[in-house]
Design goal:
- The complex is a heterodimer of chains A (363) and B (80).
- By secondary structure, chain A is mainly alpha-helical.
- Chain A is built from 15 helices and 7 strands.
- Chain A has helices at residues 3-8, 35-38, 64-75, 82-86, 91-104, 108-114, 153-162, 166-179, 187-202, 215-218, 230-237, 243-259, 269-274, 294-303, 324-350, and strands spanning 56-59, 116-122, 137-146, 148-151, 184-185, 285-288, 315-320.
- In chain A, the strands form 2 sheets. Chain A has a 3-stranded antiparallel sheet with strand order 2-3-7.
- In chain A, helix 6 packs across helix 15, helix 8 packs parallel to helix 12 and helix 9 (187-202) crosses helix 14.
- Residues 1-30 of chain A have low confidence and may be disordered.
- Chain B contains 1 helix and 6 strands.
- Chain B has one helix at 68-74, and strands spanning 2-6, 11-14, 17-24, 27-38, 41-45, 49-54.
- In chain B, strands 3, 4, 5 and 6 form a 4-stranded antiparallel sheet that branches.
- The chains are: A mainly alpha (363), B mainly beta (80).
- The interface between A and B is medium-sized, with 44 and 26 residues.
- Strand 1 of chain A pairs antiparallel with strand 2 (11-14) of chain B, so a sheet runs across the interface.
């Protein structure tokens, strides 16, 4: 019998399937109706469950490096014992849980509000590349899944009312603190893009047919002022009465303090060999003056070709399994990079006009 | 932040999406579903989106019916 015939019910006299009629039954207690007769049957329709289906498959070959790293992390007290059982006593999963725990302990929740980032422990800088690092060398790699967004104009306008040099000072330290660790795309990148496009079009006939984004026109004049040093800004803080401005400056100081706690690891020759013919890193943050301005236009234009060649990772932190100190140091540096991003995320929360950039994540 | 570990040839493949094939006679289409997980029960498939109308199912996904001898003539282009 076909499946539909089964649903329809028993065969009738003609031999064709017929709908089963509801049975008229009389309650044993005359005159009363039991609740079961009044309530509708629970619908069997629902989302298909994958009960009994394995949702994870692991291909395991040599995990000696993972074990060596796990051992160092335990001895350095970066990894915790509880995760070993939680990870099913699997070294790779243990490292994954440790990495998650470490990031969470260094501002993970605040970062996730604004930034969409990946952190990987890897033996190579390029996904699916055959060329890996020398044995015993691993990397912590930080890269964006998508660029976060910050709107600058409302903040710059507010700061300008307080002091004519505040806008340029705020932008300079905000961008500088973040650029120490990750790439942010701002009006200077957009200006470079426009210059490059202008050079491309110069040799062509009918140059006038090309319309270039007017970055100059959308850039506030206040950014042309000379920025104050952080020390000068701290000394001026006492004179400010506006609470929002005070909060913004406190947030900026927190960001700068976090950013300067460590130096970003240098890009080595060996990394360069793995990343030959790569594009610049993908921006982790787009800093625009207004929605849909020329900076956003240039960013959109560049993003069309950004993945034509594999981009460099934003942050590469190498570690040597033969030297446990480098492992400890690498995780400490990752922690500082995370704290910097968390401080930036909290600061963007305070910046007027940025209610829209919060990332909603499923539980 | 999403986190990953990729050392050596060890790889962990997690079920992220599932393709469901719907078939009527010699026509079929596929829907793509996200696999959602939850702490207190088995994973489940969320609502899907139509991926394509198949002209012909890829090898290996073909049903055992119709019989091999007439399969070539049975799998024809759908009338859209």
């Amino acid at each position: 019998m076909s499946q539909s015939a089964n649903v329809l019910g028993a065969f009738g006299q003609s031999g064709r399937p017929v709908f089963t009629m509801a049975q008229r039954t009389t309650s044993a207690t005359s005159g009363t109706i039991s609740p079961a007769h009044l309530m509708a049957q629970r619908s069997p329709v629902g989302l298909p469950l994958l009960e009994g289906v394995s949702t994870e498959q692991r291909f395991l070959s040599d995990d000696s490096e993972a074990i060596a790293l796990a051992e160092i992390l335990v001895k350095s007290r970066i990894a915790v014992e509880a995760d070993w059982e939680k990870g099913g006593r699997d070294p790779t999963k243990y490292l994954w849980l440790t990495l998650q725990r470490w990031i969470q302990g260094h501002g993970g929740s605040a970062i996730d509000r604004r930034f969409d980032l990946d952190v990987t422990i890897s033996d190579r800088l390029v996904d699916y590349s055959d060329e890996r690092a020398p044995r015993g060398t691993l990397y912590l790699i930080l890269d964006p899944e998508a660029a976060a967004f910050v709107l600058l104009n409302p903040t710059l306008e507010l700061l300008e009312k307080e002091h004519r040099q505040f806008p340029s000072t705020f932008f300079s330290h905000f961008a500088g603190a973040l650029n120490r660790w990750v790439r942010i795309y701002d009006y200077r990148d957009a200006e470079e893009r426009v210059d490059m496009l202008r050079q491309w079009y110069e040799g062509e006939e009918n140059v006038d047919q090309y319309e270039l984004p007017d970055v100059e026109a959308c850039t506030p004049q206040s950014l042309k002022e000379k920025p104050l040093s952080l020390r000068e800004l701290i000394s001026l803080r006492q004179t400010i009465t506006n609470e929002t401005v005070t909060a913004l400056l406190e947030g900026l100081f927190e960001l700068c303090r976090a950013s300067e706690k460590a130096k970003r690891p240098e890009f080595t020759e060996e990394m360069g060999e793995q990343l030959m013919d790569s594009n610049p890193p993908l921006p982790c943050l787009l800093a625009a003056f207004a929605h849909g301005d020329a900076v956003v236009g240039c960013f959109d234009d560049e993003s069309q070709t950004a993945l034509e060649v594999i981009p460099q990772p934003n942050l590469i932190i190498p570690l040597q399994l033969s030297n446990p100190d480098t492992v400890h140091k690498a995780f400490r540096i990752l922690g500082i990079a995370c704290e910097t991003l968390a401080a930036a995320s909290r600061l963007i929360d305070l910046m007027p006009g940025n209610d829209d950039g919060v990332i909603t994540r499923e539980a | 932040m999403d986190t990953r570990v990729r050392i050596g040839d060890t790889r962990t493949f997690t079920l992220k999406q599932a393709i469901l094939l719907y078939q009527e006679g010699n026509r079929a289409f596929a829907t793509l579903h996200e696999v959602k997980s939850r702490d207190d029960g088995p994973s489940y498939l969320s609502a899907g989106q139509s991926v394509t109308t198949f002209r012909r199912l890829p090898k290996g996904l073909e049903p055992t019916w119709p019989p091999r001898c007439c399969r070539k003539t049975c799998w024809h282009e759908p009338q859209i």
